[in-house]
Amino acid sequence: EDLGEPLFVSRSSKIYKWEDNILLKLFNENIDPELIKNEQINTTETYKKGVSMVKCLGQVDIGTQKGLLLLRVGGETLISLAGSKPVTAFGVPKLMAKLQEEIHGTGTEIIRSYKDMVIDALSSEPLSFLTFEEKQKAINHIELLPDGNSILHLDYHPDNIMSDGEAATIIDWMTAASGCPAADVAATLYLLREGEMIPGLNRAVALVLEVIRKMICSKYYAAYKADTGLTDEEVKPWRLPFLIVRLGVWNIETEVKILQKKIREELKE
Asked: Using CA atoms, how far apart are residues 66 and 248, in angstroms rounded to an integer?
């Protein structure tokens, strides 16, 4: 049956209307089935813990592609709201900090360990450019970092938060993990400061969103630190692990050279 035009397109999937209040998240064929399985586990756990309104109803196969059925959440992403109504961007930083503090205050024994995820990423093909000695240095760095069992999103930015103007919730839990909250903050800082913008954006829109996201980043980080007492010194060591995961798990073609350079720079410190 024809699914019609997708409601939303991302790097890894397309979102379609399925039936009634249910959406189909149909993953691209090149997406590792393990990542899809993780998203189902992570979405189920975060809904059960009460930190996300996204409910997973199960997995389906559409031809050669795999998909997840998700209960639809009302509203728009914060980035869409900021693009159409720039004034709404001013409330985004505190909302981001609040929602992230909520998930960081929630423990899990179900979602995979972030430190294990980073070690696994070091063994992936995209990280094969590193020498044995460089990989060992990275492993030593990771093993010395603090453990934790907080829920971490690891792809946390305004485009993964839905709001209807009254309630807001976090979506897209594919790369979630458990660990130390500072690790998730380091990931968000990278995404807002250095991450590649959404592909296919009109240049004028992209320039406006770039200015907006930089403003959001500084104010979000200040709000999170003020609320929790987190310090720059606690966040900084988690930059290298996220660069490794960004390359090993996402492996975005246009970011490969940049990430290789940044990983080597971190290893020299």
From this structure: 21
The 10s digit of each residue's pLDDT in 8-49 is 988 899 999 999 899 999 999 999 999 999 999 999 999 999
Query: Alpha-carbon distance 110 to 173, whole Å?
Result: 13
What pLDDT sits at residue 46?
A: 98
* pLDDT tens track for 68-120: 999 999 899 887 876 677 777 789 999 999 999 999 999 999 999 999 999 99
pLDDT band at 198 (very low <50, low <70, confident <90, very high): low
Contacts of 140 (CB under 8 A, 6+ apart): none
CA-based nearest residue to 192, from 174, 172, 219, 169:
219
